[in-house]
Amino acid sequence: MLSPGVRPGTSADYENQLERLRAPATPATTTLGKIGHGLAKIGNIAGDIAVPGVMANIPGTDMFKRAEIHAIERS
């Protein structure tokens, strides 16, 4: 998602992308949400250990987010 007046591929575009990727997740407010966040964290850890190559290709995982940040920082 581009901000108004920002062209794709510019340094401002990359800064916006990095800021969005590094922003902390919204905290869970309900009991069910807290359980879901806990299970997601467990799944991320288990996946990073068991199948790191697969986890890097699944959007929403920590490893995928780190790969996106690394790709932008190299640009």
Query: What does the average pLDDT come to?
Result: 87
Oligomer: single chain
Q: Strand-residue fraction?
A: under 5%
Report the span from N to C terminus. 18 Å
**Unreliable spans:** none
Q: Would you list the SSEs in sequence order as H and E?
A: HHHH
Major beta-sheet overview: none
Overall SS class: mainly alpha
Radius of gyration: 15 Å
Helix content: 55-70%
The total strand number stands at: 0
Q: What's the helix count? A: 4
Indicate the overall shape: flat
Please sum up the structure shown.
The protein is mainly alpha-helical and 75 residues long. 65% of the residues lie in helices and 0% in strands.
Helix and strand layout, with pairings?
Layout: H1 11-22, H2 31-50, H3 52-55, H4 62-74
Helix pairs in contact: 1-4
Descriptive terms for the model:
4 helices, 75 residues, single chain, 65% helix, mainly alpha
Description:
This protein is mainly alpha-helical. It has a domain at 28-74. Helices cover 65% and strands 0% of the residues. It is built from 4 helices and no strands. The two termini are 18 Å apart. 1% of the residues are buried.
